Each structure stands twice: as structure tokens, then as C-alpha cells.
Amino acid sequence: MKNSVLSRRTFLKAATTGSLAVLAMPTIIPASAFGANDRIRVGVIGFNSRGKDHITGFKKLQNVEVATLCDVDKKVLQEGAKDFEKKYGKKVKMEQDLRRVFDDKNIDAVSIATPNHWHALATIWACQAGKDVYLEKPASHNLFEGRKIIEAADKYNRIVQHGVQLRSSVAIREAIQHLRNGLIGNVYMARGVVFKWRPDIGDQGVSAAPADLNWDLWQGPAEEKPFSKNYVHYNWHWFWNYGNGDIGNQGVHETDLCLWGLDVGLPEVISSTGGKFLWKDCKETPEVLTSTFHYPKQGKMIQFEVRPWMTNKEDGVEIGNFFYGDKGYMVVNGYNDFKTFLGKERTPGPAGNAGGDHFQNFIDAVRARDKKLLHGPIETGHLASGLAHLANISYRLGRSLNFDPVKEQFINDNTANLMLSRPYRAPYIVPNVV
């Protein structure tokens, strides 16, 4: 066994010399190679939650300036700008409408951390305006949108990074290389688990929108509905009009790793079932969801579990992934940690725990104008988000579905195919880019 397994020392040496293609890291271009005008100026769009991490991530990078903050909630915007000035000792430009950020010729790139239903249109508009994009997961609100983002990035020659930071984790990239090298044998199954604490959110009904919130702009491409405190600012995740449930929230990190580790794309057979068993609140998406994705031609499958409350851990994992082969299995805990267990006796094998910098990877690709340097290119974002979308469609229809992964259409199923996109609300229409 020892002779057939890539040792950690050999692995790290190979990674350092660049001989492992899957781990090929971009050349770090020193800031001194550029003039003062080569500073990359970033606008952060949506920062009430995850966007705060975007600000921190970009601020620590050399020769990168967070130049503009944008949020549809004026109160969030003003408080964020005040905190920014206090923390970094400088003022930052404020915009409530993301279109003004795209119009700004001084902005080179944008990061997007809006609710899911805005991800595609915001990214396409940014590409059309000549901006590169760091896009928070999930890449899209439906499958159609993911393909449109890919087309826009290609048409306008923009760098678009999908914000799943485990793609830049040194440990996870090592783990993927072990899978490719056959450490656990023929890898036939991946499992993703999302066990997050999701409490009862009640039902606050409808009310007038706060004066500081541009409710029309917040809704954007989605079907127009009355304002409710149930949506703003986080629980929109649990409503189909704006979010995709936890498989399309936290779960996209894990669907992405399932696909990466198995080396597959979209599946041919999808089955997803679950429901609301705990709370009588106003959530629309399921609390508990069990999904399977079958790849009959490759002889592989993915299992995915979402649980919201009291539950056991699986091999110590609450959020993570498992890979099963005929010679062992791998456990990925979170974003930066993996372990392997080999043979019938589950002998501990190679393990690792090391992070990475996904924002730096994006900036490196922007500077080099080379999307091949991206660890999380938008194509992978489309697939990872797509897996969640397919599961949700199966759940909502209450049946298994047959899918053509090349045409990205369900087979002889008009009802399901209608759910691959949505009606859009003018003027916030996701365009057919090609």
C-alpha cells in the first residue's frame, strides 16, 4: 500500500514544482511589476451578511482598493460606510443602486453578495459593463441563469470567480489529487451533508417596506410581492421567489466538492424528497431534504442530506463531504480539512488541514487576464448550483426526473423544464446572451 500511495512529502514537493496539474497555482505577480494606475478598484455589492467577508478579503490584498460599497438598504449602506471609515481610516463611496456601480468607469471589478435571485442579472450587467466579477454562491437562482452567466463571461471576456472558497484550500486541492491518483481506488460515490441550526422563523405577515429600503430594487428580477419582514435580511433563503433552501445555500459548497471529487457534471437521474417536519412557520423550502443524483454511464452517484436541527454528526462532520472508493474512503470536514481511511481495517491514510485565499486567486486571474488561473471558474459554479436546482425541482414535483446533461433539459417533461427558468419582471430581465 505504501508504494502505491503518494506520500505527503512527495505530494508537497510535486505541488511546489508545479508537476500536479490539478494543483497548479497561479504565479503571484508582484505589485511592483505594475504602475500606480494598475491598482484594482473593487465595488462590493450587498454586504449585510457574506459581503462583509468580501470587504475584509479584498482589503487585505496588495494593490487592491475597496472603492465603493453598494446596498439597496440605505441604513445598511450608511452604517457599513461608517464602520469602513472607522476600521480602515478612509471614506468609501456609497451607492444604493448597483447600476451606478457598473456605470462607474473607475471600478475594475465587483463582488456580488446579494440575495440569490439577483446573482445572474447582476453578473451579466457587470460583464456587459466591462467589470470582472467575484460572485457569491450559488452562482444562479435557476439552471437557465447559470448558462447565461457563462455565455456573458465568454462574450465580454470577463473573469468570473464562483465564491466557493474550498476551491482554493491547499488541503482540499491535495485531497482531490489523492482521489485522482487512486488513493481510495475507484471513487464511485460522494456524499454531502449540511446539518445547520435553522430555527422557527414564525410568520410576520406583510407590512409597509422600511423607508430606507428600495423594495422594488431589492425584488429585482423576482415576481413582485408585498414586503414582509420574513424576507429581509436573511430568511429570504427559505422562499422560492428569492432563495433555494439550504441545499442551494450552504449546500452549494458541498455540491461543488461532490462534483469535483467524482469528476462529473450534471446527472441523468435525480430523486429528491423531504419536507417540513419541525416548525409551522412560513418557510416554503424543506427543512429536511434527501437527494440522490445518478450517473449510470459513469457508474457513479451522489447522495446529499440537509438536516436543520437535532442530529448526529457523521464521522464528526456537520458540514462536509465523504468520498467512497473500493480501497477506502475520504472525509472532508468543512472547507480546509480532510482525512482518509484505507482498506477493510480503515487504516488512517494521508490527511491535511490548510486553507487558501480565494480572493487572491481571483485578483491574480484579473491581473493576468487569464481565466484559466481561476480555482472556481463560473462553469463549476453553474454545475454546483445546478445540482441544487435539479434537486429542488424533483422535490417540488414529488417525483424522480430523467435529465439530459448535454442539452440541460429534462427528457420528455415539459412541466419540469418550465422550472429550469422563471418569468422575469421588467426592467430586471435576465437576457438570452448568445
Automatic annotation (TrEMBL):
Coiled coil: none annotated. It comes from the Bacteria. It comes from Adhaeribacter aerolatus. Keywords: Signal. This is Dehydrogenase. GO terms for molecular function: nucleotide binding. It holds the Pfam family GFO_IDH_MocA. InterPro entries: Gfo/Idh/MocA-like_OxRdtase_N, Gfo/Idh/MocA_oxidrdct_glycsds, Gfo/Idh/MocA_OxRdtase_bact_C, NAD(P)-bd_dom_sf, TAT_signal. Residues 1-24 form the signal peptide. Residues 206-256, 358-428 form the Gfo/Idh/MocA-like oxidoreductase bacterial type C-terminal domain. Residues 40-163 form the Gfo/Idh/MocA-like oxidoreductase N-terminal domain.
